[in-house]
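Lecture notes, unit on protein representations.

Consider one protein chain, 194 amino acids long.
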Amino acid sequence: MTAVYLAGVALAALLSENFILVNCLGIGTRTQAFDHPLDAGRTGAALTAVMTLTALVTWVADQLLYHFALDYYQTLVFALVGPVVVWALRGFLRSCVPELHRRLDENLSSITSNCAAMGAALIISQRGYNLGAALLFALFGGLGATIALISFAGLRLDLNVDRCPKSFRGAPLELITAGLMALSLVGFYGLHLA
């Protein structure tokens, strides 16, 4: 495994395969995450932690399923691992770092059913990444999602709704903004070196 290969995996997860803007995974977060960049950053940090831990656990589970020829249970196992990881992370934070638990608990509970973690696990399995590449893909995928969430929340604060037609106010303007953000990543498509 070369450094160029790992850099390609990381850049692909961060830019050309952004989980929110390109793959449309992970957009099921609570709507309060888009109100302020600080809330978006907390949601993104929680999503990154869950994606990385889920990638670790599902990679190990995937290896065991293939070893025992039970790979037809892969989707079921991956679907169950995400909520279990969130439950374990919430319990760990509650007992060991109560202040961080207080700040992130609402964000973690909204990520329980987020499809970015399972999507990352499925992509990792389909591509046959080793453990290092799998963790790097999940980490940079979570960072890319965090950047997208913070950018979108910041753009929502800066939009001057009074200067646009009434028919574009609200959801139409937000969808146009998200579409333009996704189009900005099209130039990076094909960056995947792995």
